[in-house]
Amino acid sequence: MSDILMIVTGADSLTMKDGSKHPTGFWAEELVTAHRDLVAAGHAITIATPGGVIPTVDRGSLDPAVVGSRETVDELHAYLASIAEELASTVPIADVDPSEYAAIVLPGGHGPMADLASDTATGRVLVAANDAGTIIAPFCHGPAALLAASLDDGSFAFAGRRLTVFTDEEERTGGTGENTPWWVESTLRERGAVIDSAGPWSDHVVVDGNLITGQNPQSSASVARRVIEALAA
């Protein structure tokens, strides 16, 4: 069994290009799938958020029209209820010692764009974990958190690394559209990441050493499986 840190957004809204507030949070299916599959494989998870706040679930991720069925929504609700105590007692990211964890998993939702992408505590944890070769596994909008990882000279800790992320095309066609305040894929590319994308809504995972990334919600289970395989190795 390994100890895994799950860094989750604490944001409940994202300020859009036009200044409006878009309700957001973590994407239910992504957190549930990763948590469920990792625990089922025998691993222990600690959930951390900025300031130790209770994370907010994105309402859209519990909409049957978005998720696909009422049955799936009911399953997500049930699992979130089963870990409600964990979600209500998160650890502040600033208090995290990354050396205590074998892997760091970062599910998405638009929330990471609002807080994790510029959170210095998250950046500190990711830089230390990367230096130690710890598994780092963000997916969908989770890779936005990588942008917080700056080295002492100000350079991007993940420059030159191959990764995938919710694409600009997916954002335009199935995300927040042209009112998106900034584009995660483009920004990561500008900072020096090597983006490896598949077609929109494809189950796509990229592994580059200790970095395991997934493109979108469709990739959640595959990311969890790759993390489990990497821990077993």
UniProtKB/TrEMBL annotation:
<dbReference type="InterPro" id="IPR029062">
    <property type="entry name" value="Class_I_gatase-like"/>
</dbReference>
<comment type="similarity">
    <text>Belongs to the peptidase C56 family. HSP31-like subfamily.</text>
</comment>
<feature type="domain" description="DJ-1/PfpI">
    <location>
        <begin position="29"/>
        <end position="229"/>
    </location>
</feature>
<dbReference type="GO" id="GO:0006508">
    <property type="term" value="P:proteolysis"/>
</dbReference>
<keyword id="KW-0645">Protease</keyword>
<keyword id="KW-0346">Stress response</keyword>
<dbReference type="GO" id="GO:0019172">
    <property type="term" value="F:glyoxalase III activity"/>
</dbReference>
<dbReference type="GO" id="GO:0019243">
    <property type="term" value="P:methylglyoxal catabolic process to D-lactate via S-lactoyl-glutathione"/>
</dbReference>
<dbReference type="Pfam" id="PF01965">
    <property type="entry name" value="DJ-1_PfpI"/>
</dbReference>
<protein>
    <submittedName>
        <fullName>Putative intracellular protease/amidase</fullName>
    </submittedName>
</protein>
<dbReference type="GO" id="GO:0005737">
    <property type="term" value="C:cytoplasm"/>
</dbReference>
<dbReference type="GO" id="GO:0008233">
    <property type="term" value="F:peptidase activity"/>
</dbReference>
<keyword id="KW-0378">Hydrolase</keyword>
<keyword id="KW-0456">Lyase</keyword>
<dbReference type="InterPro" id="IPR050325">
    <property type="entry name" value="Prot/Nucl_acid_deglycase"/>
</dbReference>
<dbReference type="InterPro" id="IPR002818">
    <property type="entry name" value="DJ-1/PfpI"/>
</dbReference>
